[in-house]
Design goal:
Number of helices: 3
Radius of gyration: 31 Å
Strand content: under 5%
Structural class: mainly alpha
Number of strands: 0
Largest sheet: none
Order of helices and strands: HHH
Helix content: 55-70%
């Protein structure tokens, strides 16, 4: 039990002794023009670009399938004959 009290006191002392600037990143702390905030913004834009590229690839694949299906479709579907067995 004594070890738990010592560990709790050490955690409390570390939390009190930390400077305020170590408690939050520069974007959360308010310095929105710092290098860390710029890097975070660029990371967001890169991830957004990846999402747009993946969704664009999926959309282009379905457009390709639609064009291929229309190219292989018969010209006049009423001329198709029914097969009787």
């Amino acid at each position: 039990m004594n070890l738990v009290r010592a560990f709790s006191a050490l955690i409390l002392l570390a939390a009190v002794a930390l400077p305020q600037s170590a408690l939050a990143c520069s974007a959360c702390f308010g310095a929105s023009d710092s290098d860390m905030a710029k890097g975070m913004n660029m990371g967001i834009f890169v991830l957004l670009g990846v999402i747009v590229a993946v969704l664009g690839g999926i959309a282009s694949f379905f457009i390709y399938l639609a064009r291929r299906a229309s190219a292989h479709a018969p010209e006049n579907p009423s001329t198709m004959t029914k097969q009787t067995s």
